């Protein structure tokens, strides 16, 4: 059960409807998470703009960001986020095998990931576990592949999606009907706790 109602466009303020229009144009539908955000449009309008900025090529390409988003939201066990971002990742050309290897520590030995990707997936794991204890050794491996601007964008993507998955789950946001029956790859098998 969701904690707050989904605010439909006909009930929403002009500011919320402006956000809804941008979200619908970008995602081809009005997602339930935006309908929840509509209750606080002054807070969520700039936040949704930030999300949309992340979800495109920047200093780091969008495909790499999707790997980070999938890893972050899977660590938080956010079914809503994982289903949506697996669908999006498939549209961006990420294979099901690569998605499956994001589970647990499989990425560390997977042939589907470059050393650069492995370093930032490990960074995702560590930030999720304890952001205050990222080792110098791990930062060194990340710096071998990414410049400081890219690192800022990588960490912004990881931490934003850790927060988004907690936000959506706390409010009980449910998947849209368009995703009915979709079983995410990252939840198909049971694995030991992270």
Plain-language structure description:
- The model is unreliable at 190-194 (pLDDT under 50).
- The chain folds into two domains: 1-54, no CATH class; 61-187, AhpD-like.
- The chain is mainly α and 194 residues long.
- The chain has nine helices and no strands.
- Helix 1 runs parallel beside helix 3 and helix 4 runs parallel beside helix 7.
- It has helices at residues 14-27, 32-37, 41-54, 62-75, 79-91, 96-100, 115-130, 136-143, 148-170.
- Helix content is 58%, strand content 0%.
Overall mean pLDDT: 92
Count of helix runs:
9
Order of helices and strands: HHHHHHHHH
Distance between the termini: 26 Å
Helix percent reads 55-70%
How many beta-strand segments?
0
Question: Based on helices, strands and strand pairing, what is the structural class?
Answer: mainly alpha
What about the largest sheet?
none
Which fold name is given in CATH as the topology of the largest domain?
AhpD-like
CATH architecture of the largest domain: Up-down Bundle
């Amino acid at each position: 059960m969701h904690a707050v109602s989904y605010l439909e466009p006909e009930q929403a303020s002009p500011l919320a409807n402006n956000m809804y229009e941008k979200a619908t144009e970008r995602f081809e539908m009005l997602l339930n998470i935006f309908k929840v955000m509509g209750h606080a449009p002054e807070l969520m309008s700039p936040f949704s703009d930030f999300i949309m900025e992340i979800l495109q090529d920047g200093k780091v390409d969008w495909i790499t960001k999707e790997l980070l988003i999938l890893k972050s939201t899977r660590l938080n066990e956010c079914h809503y986020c994982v289903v949506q971002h697996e669908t999006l990742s498939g549209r961006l050309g990420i294979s099901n095998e690569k998605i499956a290897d994001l589970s647990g520590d499989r990425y560390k030995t997977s042939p589907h990931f470059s050393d650069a990707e492995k370093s930032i997936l490990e960074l995702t794991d560590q930030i999720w576990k304890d952001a205050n204890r990222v080792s110098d050794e791990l930062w060194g491996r990340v710096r071998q592949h990414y410049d400081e601007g890219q690192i800022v964008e990588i960490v912004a993507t990881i931490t934003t999606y850790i927060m988004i998955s907690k936000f959506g789950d706390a409010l009980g946001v449910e998947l849209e009907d368009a995703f009915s029956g979709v079983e995410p790859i990252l939840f198909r098998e049971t694995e030991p706790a992270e």
